[in-house]
Design a protein that fits this description.
- The protein has one domain (about 1-95, about 130-175).
- It is about 30% helix and about 20% strand.
- It has 6 helices and 9 strands.
- It has a 4-stranded antiparallel β-sheet.
- The longest helix has 17 residues, at about 100-115.
- The protein is globular, with a radius of gyration of 18 Å.
């Protein structure tokens, strides 16, 4: 497992949809992000900020994602000091906190209430059940789901994070970043 703290920087490549989101929702960040674009078109930013700014825009079936689905973890944060790529569709392990369980419970209740006029909704959704945890206390989920469910809870100064700030990514999901070959 590769441990990674969400306060560390990652590199993302914004799409037109991501630029539009920044223009509409976070215009103060647009210039900052533009100033951080490297020669390969990647913007370096803390992972929690990616989750906060773009999490609600990462959902199943969205054809206009705010950034390309591969995220680069700079080598300074990896065990072998080599840049790694992981995809937002890959699974990560998180240790939920009480605040995180409460967020999930509230989201479940909102969904049940939203569909309450539909027959059989309670049978379909059932009562809230906390996610399963492994013997080390981790819950596994696709990264885009973690972004979507918890992104709004990640901001500077939050004393009640929904999960511990160090996530774990199985090495099977990490791919070595290939340095693009220079044209001759």
């Amino acid at each position: 497992m590769q441990k990674f703290n969400i306060n560390n920087n990652v590199k993302i490549k914004l799409t037109e949809a991501g630029i539009d989101i920044l223009k509409k929702e976070r215009p103060n960040l647009l210039e900052i992000y533009n100033n951080r674009i490297d020669k390969d078109g990647y913007t370096q930013v803390q992972l929690w900020e990616v989750m906060n700014v773009f999490g609600k825009h990462c959902y199943n079936g969205n054809n206009n994602l705010p950034f390309e689905t591969n995220i680069i973890i700079p080598g300074e944060y990896t065990d072998d000091q080599i840049d790694k790529i992981f995809n937002i569709n890959d699974y990560v392990d998180i240790k939920l906190t009480e605040a995180g369980i409460n967020v999930l419970k509230e989201q479940h209740e909102e969904m049940v209430n939203f569909y309450s006029n539909q027959p059989g909704v309670q049978k379909m959704f059932g009562n809230f059940k906390a996610p399963k945890v492994d013997e080390n206390g981790y819950t596994q989920e696709q990264f885009w789901v973690v972004m979507n469910k918890f992104g709004q809870c990640l901001y500077n100064g939050n004393q009640s994070l929904p999960f511990e700030p160090t996530i774990a990514i199985s090495k099977e999901y990490l791919e070595e970043q290939k340095t693009p070959k220079k044209a001759k």
